[in-house]
Write a structure and sequence with these properties.
Jelly Rolls; 8-stranded antiparallel beta sheet; 26 strands
């Protein structure tokens, strides 16, 4: 323990007492200066419980609860809080004035009655308020008894009910008596629906409108659809997604589709709403309108990529898609028009027409003939629709009310806010009595505002971090260290000069240089994770010119195998997995995580500068305005994929049971842990609940760092997956769907080809139309073609090959470029220090920022929008640029230490993810600083650091710690832990290397790169094995990595669990590993393939087989004693198998497998795969 750490520990108890005193004083000062509850306290309460429905993206009833001004403004029902201002006399005067304003408004209305009556007569000259009938091609009133419910009032094309279960009716939307059960259709959510057949046929260039009255349950339910799933989802889809009314117009999902939904307006479950959408035939999302209860909603556009046609032979369905989105609830008055309705026509469909009908009957009479009751009814009709009177009534009601009767308090007390029935869906919990009392106290006090600036850090007078804290070696910028001078002129590599200097201090020297074959095998495994082929080994051994090893390193770095090996190291660090993990056993798959894996591999292969690599991963979405880009280039696409780095933490919040604020904060904490350990080498997560016990990281700085990511990770505004059963919709909101330039070009090319081929079929079908008898002449073209294929052999012979060609071309369309990405969504909710980490106990607000101990007080952390007019906050981009400053204390140090660890077995700082006080001090601090600065000087090139390290004498030492006489070497005695790098370590292969090398020696390794992960088989007994791909298996980096379902081969050899990540792998030596290699069926199969390879390359002569097997398995020929032992063993094995097969044959069990010689060789190869020489790297 360092003296500094000891000092912190010994002062802990006195500090606690002092801190307690400070808390008391602070509380007293606060009591003197201002109210106990402020707008900040109230804002924190409402953020936790109410902003799902009344927040930044959605304001139910037009009400926002984000701040004090929003509460005072209120929504459709008036102000959310009632404040009493002034003295009692002043309040009485305000009441009288409001009453007078209402009287004036009512008198004004009475004077306008003749004008309003005249206007109503002109609007309805027939005296009947009937909805528009022009262009109405299908109308299902869904009224009356069950037998009449399916009737279509516009044609004979009635609907057909499909179960399960019997058709049921319920009260309609305009029913005054809920006991009347014949006014609407009720569907129970089990798949019941109406099949409306081909009542309407629209193409993407034709306008139309669909509408209905609905009273839905809180689930995903299709209202009106005509969609072909699960193939390409082509068609029209009008669906209620848990209150969000969505429209899909699809040619092929999601690359050729429109998807829109209201930005803020939601419908309430178990209540009647009129919903309508229209489409103008433009092929654009802007041509879609959605109306909720007669009011046009502002739309959010999810996809606007429709270039094809959404026409489909599927029937219209009311209450479900083809195989999903089963509607539960009531549906009434379904209408389909072949035109776009006007706003007035929409309103007429959505209003209660009974009151209007009564008003029209009154105005049919002359004024003198109207009874007093009729006059009052007419006045009431106009009064109810007069906005001025409505506003004055609300004003008067508001002035009469008491603060404790405020709308927000009434809704909370009644259980309507947050809605009890929707708590699980929204990840919300009811308000505690303590919070309700604080809210009421604040309102009664007049909703006081108190200036409480967010805490900042990094100033010269920061009370929590001082210069002594900043003086710790890891928090100082790397020094400019000169390379030590060495009397040994043979030392040319600066690394060797630093290492030799420490060795000399310890009374040691370098160990001898390893044999060339040993060096080559070491280099191949370090950079490729695979052994050299015999030809590659011979090429290196034949190169006797100076610099041969350097040329070998260059060849290895230029190979695509390099990115697969070193990409795996990075994927460990970031916690890569193909599943979400989290708190549930389900462990759902992360369907597009592999794109990030491929990005990492490509980045390493291209030697992407590490500073750029980090910036892309932390803020790739803020590097370019991708939302408004005319084209999505490969660079933009990769920048977005890169942000998958910040989506790798375990996250089960797609499941409602674990999607509450506390669960979201756990996800954020894990992601911050990944960032801080990988990039900064600090355990920042320790400061979530209290100041870090050992490092100068106050709790304030944890939440300031969290605030940086809040533009994307806002626990109060959490993105939820779209509901539904199919995976194409399930994760729709939480991913980006991108159409790259390449994809668009390919789609355009295919569209031209498809249209040309389809045109030939269409022309021939139209030519034959005249010959079609009767009603078939008027068939739509798709139906006409289907009819001709069945009835006309000549047309069938002509059209079938062409239609097959169309299908083949369709199958060539690029797959959807869906990305598990992180993107900034604009200004987030405020961030508070959570006292003891409890989200129900928020403290002081904080501003986004970096740990004060790493900041320069003279250069404050500055956040700017990434470009002019950007909606993004620019917070993560500011962090990324701060992290990659050339003189940053940690970034370059942490990365060169990680590279060193993978080459030399341990880091210069052994605690690779912890450079803080509880980590280990560097063994070679000057070398670490020199490497950090050299890394930056060489353009942050990781490949340059490989060359520098691998061409050093330090790297080329032998790994032996034994003297020729068999005793411990001088290196082993003086440097038992190899802290001074007096030799190279003997390293056991990592899990992936064991598997990949076994596949490689067996000649069963498929080197196809990239793409979705390879599947696995999961047996009931828990054994998890990889499925063969085209006669072999791909590298382990491409194998499906599920957090709770590891491939048994890999888990046996210490594949790490990503909880949330793995900075440094551990290594175990247990009997299970040897048993696995001896008894596993896959190993036995690979041993057989290994034998086939040896026999193919060496023939059947025993000595040649032994030599070849050793060369393939160990990258070297056998020593004399190994050769002799191998020959004897193989001869013995041959005799055994010959005798065994002869015995089996005599017993009537003839050999149906490999001959005895092959079986003997397979047994010998199996033994080699079990040997230490195979598993360990010198």
């Amino acid at each position: 323990m360092s003296s500094r750490l000891l000092f912190r520990s010994t002062l802990l108890l006195p500090a606690v007492g002092l801190w307690f005193g400070l808390v008391v004083v602070a509380a007293d000062v606060r009591a003197e200066r201002g109210p106990a509850v402020t707008q900040h306290d109230v804002q924190a309460i409402l953020l936790r419980h109410c902003t799902v429905c009344h927040g930044r993206h959605h304001q139910e009833g037009g009400l926002s609860l984000l701040d004090r001004d929003s509460l005072l403004k209120g929504g459709k029902s008036g102000p959310a809080i009632i404040l009493k201002k002034g003295t009692l006399a002043e309040q009485s005067a305000a009441l009288r004035a409001a009453r007078a304003r209402l009287d004036t408004a009512e008198k004004l209305l009475q004077g306008r009655i003749p004008e309003l009556v005249s206007r109503l007569k002109k609007q309805f000259p027939t005296g009947k308020p009937e909805p528009a009938s022009s262009g109405l091609i299908a109308h299902f009133p869904l009224d009356g008894p069950a037998a009449q419910l399916v009737k279509n009032s516009r044609s004979k094309n009635d609907a057909v009910f499909h179960g399960p279960g019997a058709l049921r009716t319920t009260a309609g939307q305009n029913s005054q008596d809920e006991a009347v059960k014949t006014g609407a259709l009720f569907l129970d959510g089990t798949g019941q629906h109406l099949d409306a057949g081909q009542v309407a046929d629209f193409r993407s260039n034709q306008p139309f409108t669909c509408s209905a009255w609905i009273k839905p349950a809180d689930k995903v339910g299709a209202i009106i659809t005509r969609i072909n799933e699960p193939n390409d989802f082509r068609g029209i889809d009008f669906t209620n997604n848990r209150g969000l009314v969505e429209v899909h117009l699809v040619d092929k999902w999601p690359t050729n589709a429109i998807k829109v939904a209201p930005e803020t307006v939601r419908i309430t479950d178990r209540q009647w709403h009129h919903v309508l959408f229209s489409y103008d035939g433009s092929g654009k999302a802007s041509g879609v309108k959605i109306y909720i209860d007669g009011v046009q909603a502002r739309l959010k556009i999810f996809f606007d990529t429709l270039t094809g046609d959404f026409r489909t032979p599927e029937p219209w369905r009311i209450g479900r898609r083809k195989s999903s989105a089963f509607y539960e609830g009531s549906i009434d008055e379904v209408r389909i028009y072949r035109r776009v309705l006007t706003d007035a026509e929409v309103m007429l469909l959505a209003v209660d027409n009974e009151q209007l009908k009564r008003a029209l009957k009154v105005i049919e009479k002359e004024k003198a003939e109207r009874t007093e009751a009729e006059k009052q009814a007419l006045l009431q009709y106009f009064t109810d629709r007069d906005k001025n009177i409505s506003r004055r009534k609300q004003e008067l009601q508001h002035l009469r009310a008491r603060p404790e009767d405020s709308l927000v308090l009434r809704k909370i007390r009644s259980g309507q806010m947050p809605p009890k029935a929707n708590l699980l869906n929204t990840g919300t919990r009811p308000l505690k009595a303590r919070d309700v009392a604080r809210l009421e106290q604040w309102i009664k006090a007049g909703a006081p505002e108190v200036e409480l600036p967010a805490e900042t850090a990094g100033t010269t007078d920061d009370p929590l971090v001082d210069d002594d804290d900043r003086g710790y070696w890891a928090f100082q910028a790397p020094g400019h260290i000169p390379v030590p001078r060495s009397p040994d002129s043979s030392i040319a590599n600066p690394i060797d000069a630093f290492v030799a200097n420490r060795l000399e201090e310890a009374g040691l020297t370098f160990s001898p240089t390893a044999e060339p074959a040993t060096l080559a095998r070491r280099a191949f495994f370090d950079l490729h994770g695979l052994p050299p082929t015999p030809a590659q080994m011979q090429q290196f051994l034949d190169d006797d010119h100076p610099g041969a090893f350097g040329r070998l390193v260059d060849r290895l770095l230029a190979s695509p195998r390099y990115g697969e090996r070193w990409g795996r190291h990075w994927l460990d660090a970031v916690g890569y997995a193909d599943s979400f993990g989290g708190k549930l056993e389900a462990d759902h798959m992360r369907p597009y995580a592999w794109r990030y894996r491929d990005y990492v591999i490509r980045a390493f292969n291209s030697d992407r500068p590490y500073d750029r690599f980090l910036v892309e991963q932390l803020a790739g979405d803020e590097l370019v305005d991708y939302e408004n880009a005319k084209k999505i280039s490969q660079e933009i696409y990769e920048n977005l994929v890169a942000t998958g780095f910040m989506r790798m933490a375990p996250d089960s919040t797609s499941e409602r049971e674990v999607a509450f604020i506390s669960d979201r904060l756990d996800v954020i904490a894990d992601q911050l842990d990944v960032f801080s350990t990988v990039v900064l080498g600090l355990t920042v997560k320790c400061a979530r609940c209290h100041d870090h016990k050992y490092d100068p990281i106050p709790q304030r700085d944890y939440y300031r760092l969290a605030a940086i990511f809040k533009g994307a990770f806002d626990e109060n505004d959490w993105l939820k997956p779209v509901g539904g059963t199919e995976k194409q919709y399930k994760f729709g909101i939480r991913r980006l769907n991108i159409v790259t330039d390449e994809d668009k070009t390919e789609n355009d090319r295919l569209n031209v080809e498809i249209n040309n081929v389809q045109h030939k079929v269409n022309v021939e079908a139209e030519r034959l139309r005249k010959a079609v008898p009767g009603k078939e002449k008027t068939l739509a073209r798709d139906k006409l073609i289907a009819h001709l294929l069945k009835s006309n052999k000549t047309f069938k012979a002509f059209a079938e090959p062409l239609l097959k060609q169309v299908k083949e071309l369709e199958s060539q369309r690029p797959p959807a470029q869906s990305i598990q990405a992180l993107w900034d969504r604009g200004t987030p909710s405020p961030t508070y220090i959570l006292i003891r980490g409890d989200h129900d106990n928020p403290g002081h607000p904080v501003s986004p920022g970096v740990p004060a101990v790493l900041s320069n007080p003279r250069e404050p952390f500055v956040i700017r929008p990434p470009w002019k007019g950007a909606t993004q906050t620019g917070r993560r981009l500011a962090l990324a640029r701060w992290v990659v400053q050339p003189d940053h204390p940690l970034t370059s140090r942490v990365m060169v230490n990680r590279i060193w660890q993978h080459h030399f077995g341990r880091g210069l700082v052994a605690s690779v993810g912890n450079f803080g006080q509880t980590g280990t001090d560097p063994t070679h601090p000057k070398l670490l600083d020199w490497l950090a600065r050299e890394f930056v000087a060489r353009g942050w090139s990781i490949k340059a650091m490989h060359r520098l390290m691998m061409l050093s004498d330090t790297y080329r030492q032998v790994s032996s710690a034994v003297d020729p006489d068999g005793g411990p070497s001088e290196s082993q005695r003086r440097d038992p832990l190899n802290e001074w790098f007096s030799r190279m370590p003997l390293k056991r292969m990592e899990a992936e290397l064991v598997r990949d090398t076994a596949l490689w020696v067996a000649d069963r390794l498929n080197d196809t790169p990239f793409g979705p992960p390879d599947p696995v088989n999961v047996r009931k007994d828990g054994l998890v094995t990889a499925k063969s791909v085209r006669g072999g298996w791909r590298r382990s980096v491409y194998l499906r990595q599920r957090r709770k379902e590891f491939p048994t081969f890999l888990s046996t050899f210490d594949l790490p669990s990503m909880t949330p990540n793995c900075i440094q792998r551990t290594e175990s030596t247990v009997a299970l590993q040897a048993l696995f290699l001896m008894n596993n069926a896959t190993i036995d199969q690979l041993a057989g393939s290994f034998a086939e390879r040896v026999e193919k390359e060496a023939g059947t002569e025993i000595e040649l087989q032994v030599r070849r097997a050793h060369l393939v398995a160990f990258s070297r020929g056998p020593a004399d004693e190994e050769l002799e032992a191998g020959r004897s063993a193989l001869e013995l094995l041959r005799r055994h198998w010959i005798d065994h097969l002869a015995t089996e044959s005599k017993a009537g069990r003839p050999n149906k497998g490999a001959p005895a010689e092959r079986r003997a060789l397979a047994s010998y190869c199996h033994a080699l795969l079990n040997s230490a020489a195979f598993l360990y790297i010198d």
